[in-house]
Design a protein that fits this description.
Elements lengths: L1 E5 L2 E14 L8 E13 L7 E18 L6 E20 L3 E11 L5 E11 L2
Antiparallel strand pairs: 1-2, 2-3, 3-4, 4-5, 5-6, 6-7
C-alpha cells in the first residue's frame, strides 16, 4: 500500500485478506477461516533491494465457521474476533525479478483464539 524511508530505515504499510479451510482436532469437518489484516512493517537494517528483513505489527479481524458433526444434528458456530499481529519476515530478491521469502506470524485474538503461521512466499516483481 505505501512505502517510505525513516532515516536509514524502511517502512511499509500492508493490507492483507485471506481465507482457508483448517482441519481441527476437535472437529470432524474443517473450519472455514477468513482474515483481514492491516499491518505496518519496519526494515531495521534497511532494504538494499536484495535482502529485506522486516518486523511488523498490526490489527487482524477474523471470521470463523466451525462445523461439528457430519450428519443430521450437526451444528455450526460462527464467530468474529478482533486481534493483533506480530510478524517477522525475510525476503530475498533473485535475478532482480523474482522474490523468495519466509514469513512467520503470531495472532492472538480477544475471544481467546490464537493463530500461528509459517508461510513460504514466492513471487515475481513488476
Amino acid at each position: 500500500m505505501g512505502y517510505g524511508d525513516i532515516g536509514p530505515r524502511y517502512y511499509r504499510v500492508a493490507v492483507d485478506n485471506n481465507g482457508n479451510y483448517i482441519r481441527q482436532e476437535r472437529n470432524i469437518e474443517p473450519a472455514f477461516v477468513m482474515q483481514a489484516d492491516g499491518n505496518v512493517f519496519v526494515s531495521p537494517f534497511g532494504n538494499d533491494k536484495r535482502y529485506n528483513f522486516k518486523i511488523g505489527t498490526g490489527l487482524s479481524l477474523m471470521y470463523v465457521e466451525d462445523t461439528y458433526g457430519r450428519f443430521i444434528g450437526s451444528s455450526m458456530e460462527r464467530r468474529v474476533a478482533l486481534g493483533g499481529n506480530a510478524i517477522v519476515e525475510q525476503e530475498v530478491t533473485l535475478a532482480k525479478k523474482y522474490l523468495l521469502g519466509l514469513k512467520t506470524t503470531m495472532q492472538p485474538y480477544l475471544r481467546g483464539d490464537l493463530n500461528f503461521s509459517l508461510l513460504l512466499k514466492v513471487g515475481k516483481k513488476f
